[in-house]
């Protein structure tokens, strides 16, 4: 019997549970703690008909990964991954442990684009058959030594990264210091980050980038279909008082005939690369308070800097880092909106939280706006707006200061409206002639319930009559289901019996609200009980759970690094500005990768689950 063993240096925790799960039963590895991936693991994937994402091979893409591939065939033998690496992988370095000899001809080895095909079982068998064996030396001492080298290197690079972050404002409020969220300049710490960029397939990245302008248009069109918005959210409105209040403002604007001529969208559409299907699927689109255009640009710069310095040692190239101009693109959109508004004395009003750990991301944007255009930004909470704002003939003033653009970095969660004063402030801002980012209709168009309604057959297509565009956008939709109406009973039953395949999402923004795993069943059962009286199910949508590809990343928080199994979520920013019928701006506007430990369900950076990252295109 032939066994193929993949050994990863520097990956202690890597998939060990799965490996032991597989090999334990075969008794091949015994209790050896070595980080190994096995042929059987690969074959299991393949045998299971799920060959779209050969995990082990992605593992090899990691910059820090010094891997060797051993083929055990009877008396032993091996061939070196270095050869494989030179053919397929632009990252990572192969190492030949134990004097394995490469005898595979290049033609027999996979090409970069055909990893999936190559990992088919029959081909693996062929691959293995052609390997001539020499000897196998399982040099665990050398492996241990490698790990030490890696650790030393990381220890060396981490201070460089931390210095760069501190010097360049890649910082957030330090929660451990009282007042850091309210007092600017007090208690800053580097943003949680990934030391190196994480591999992301170039074609999936480009797919997401190319969707940005389509999603901008979609949001704009949906926002203008008042009947669709009101009807789609009608049942949510009954059971979710927050959505109901937003809809009330929307209705009031319609009743008063107040049209928003200038619409500004600063969006971020988030995606995961689903391992099971190999598809890039949208998690959600943010139309309010899309954060990290500022720090997202900086993490890209940091990664570029580190790769310029240390890239050679790890086979990493700056060419694989995509340009990221998110901060400038957001500043440009705000400046153009100000220009369209046409009052040079007016300023941008940033509506903020009283306490904000992520304030430097916001300050970066304001600072860049000033540098590039120059345009002033003032910051107020909704409570302060309530106290200071007035309308003169619909023109918005904060005190005596005229306002051109209202840019919300709060106002998306119920907690942002602790009293009626905040709701009155929101209404006042909406009534004003200032450009709102977002307007109430853009805010509603970004609701998860709307995402789910658009996924229904034919609905997206109503807004996107161009069939090719609609096809492209729909391709990025994950499974989304309403919990009421036709077909819902069936999907609820399915989710109760197989909760791991779903995420239950309430109509909320800001992270930490979704329901996963066994809680999906429990919550659905409870909601079913309540259904007769309250129709509470309408407050939620069900979504297909995505399982992104697992990478290995050095995560850095509060100055301490750890090597983790991680999954990533790609956000692509989009900027859009329309004045009446004139589309002034519709752009893809940079990106953000957020990476979290693979066993964490939620994903927000500000919410404390993920770290900032950038993609390394492969
Ligand atoms: P929020 O408005 O709270 O940001 P999201 O829809 O973005 O809501 O969900 C929060 C996080 O939960 C995401 O960043 C992602 O990490 C995770 N998540 C959301 N939907 C899914 C899904 N369908 N499959 C897997 N993880 C998901
Ligand atoms: Mg989100």
Q: Can you describe what's shown?
A:
Belongs to the eukaryotic GSH synthase family. Its cofactor is Mg(2+). Residues 346-445 form the Glutathione synthase substrate-binding domain. The strands form 6 sheets. Strands 7, 9, 10, 20, 21, 22 and 23 form a 7-stranded antiparallel sheet that branches. Strands 11, 12, 13, 14, 15 and 16 form a 6-stranded mixed sheet that branches. α12 (293-314) packs antiparallel against α13 (326-341). By secondary structure, the chain is an alpha+beta fold. It is built from 22 helices and 24 strands. A hairpin with a 2-residue loop joins β21 and β22.
Key features?
binds adenosine-5'-diphosphate; 618 residues; binds magnesium ion; seven-stranded antiparallel beta sheet; disordered N terminus; six-stranded mixed beta sheet
- Share of helical residues: 40-55%
Going by helix content, strand content and strand pairing, the class is alpha+beta
By DSSP (H or I, 4+ residues per run), the number of helices equals 22
Q: What distance separates the N and C termini?
A: 34 Å
- Coarse shape: globular
Radius of gyration: 26 Å
List unreliable stretches of 5+ residues.
1-138
Largest sheet: 7 strands, antiparallel
Number of strands: 24
User: Kindly state the mean pLDDT as a whole number?
Assistant: 80
User: How much β-strand is present in the residues?
Assistant: 15-25%
What binds here, in terms of ligands, is: adenosine-5'-diphosphate, magnesium ion
Pfam families: GSH_synth_ATP (PF03917), GSH_synthase (PF03199)
Family: Belongs to the eukaryotic GSH synthase family.
InterPro entries: Glutathione_synthase, Glutathione_synthase_a-hlx, Glutathione_synthase_C_euk, Glutathione_synthase_N_euk, GSH-S_sub-bd_sf, GSH_synth_subst-bd, PreATP-grasp_dom_sf
Organism: Sphagnum jensenii
